[in-house]
Please model this.
Amino acid sequence: MWNQFRKASRFQVIPVMLIPVALGSIGAYVWTNQFHPLLFLLALIGAAAAHLFSNMINDLWDFKNGTDLEAHQTEGAISTNSGFLTKGTWSYRKFSLVTWLLFAIAAACGLSLSFLSGWVVLIFGFLGAFIAYFYVAPPIRFGYRGKGYSEIAILLAFGVLPVAGAYYVQASNLDYRALLLSLPIGLLTTLILFNHHFLHWEADRQAGKRTLVVVWGEKRALVFSRVLLLLAYLSLFLCIGFGALPFYALLALPTAIPLYMVYGRLGAHNKSVAYLPLMGASLQATMRCGGVLIVALALQAAINHW
Model:
């Protein structure tokens, strides 16, 4: 059952949510000398449950909208959903039950944190839930509109909200440095979600899902993908310049090299399978860069308390 749950919820990508929570929490310790282990644990559990809920509610709505079935039927397209609904591994009812159970866990953590840290936590939680549900659910469907709404939603959901929210949970106030700190990891996670559209963009087009890859086509979308990568790593300099990160956070820059090399092997038009290395390298760059930033902040905290 645990193995099935891991596959249904795509548990393996959970670090992209835990990293920003860790960054915001350690940032609070570095800047305000505030760190509460229980609050940190609740924030981690709540954010993890919210992320997994987002993965599964996306599968539910993509299945209802016919997008997942189209990806399975389109020649050459690579489906990125769990397959539990399209293959009948779980019934729709069972999948829905687990999905909303995850939401209940996230909501319980959010309510607990609002009592312990302040009512502003509810705003972060509400915005996160709003984005998670309406990313593919009608009537908003951020992921279907193709005007950059989905990219902005991901930047908020995996950057600004978890970093600034985790900071607020610890410090009970807001700080511009938390917003800056959210940019590198938020932009890199946005890059992951953007690059995964290349795997099934033709199926998305047939299903009416207007991602930017569908709207722009491969060539222009690949240019934008490189721009996102550049912006993510340039934001490190912004963070250092305004005191959100120590200067040795620049050690994260080499984590971009493997991903940059993958771009060099892609042409203007590629088969879907050619984008699998790009997806893998995007995920690795995000986790490695995030890991370096966590270590850099932890080292700064140790120096501050030496």
Remarks:
- The mean pLDDT is 90.
- DSSP finds 14 helices and no strands in the chain.
- The radius of gyration is 19 Å.
- The CA atoms of residues 108 and 175 lie 25 Å apart.
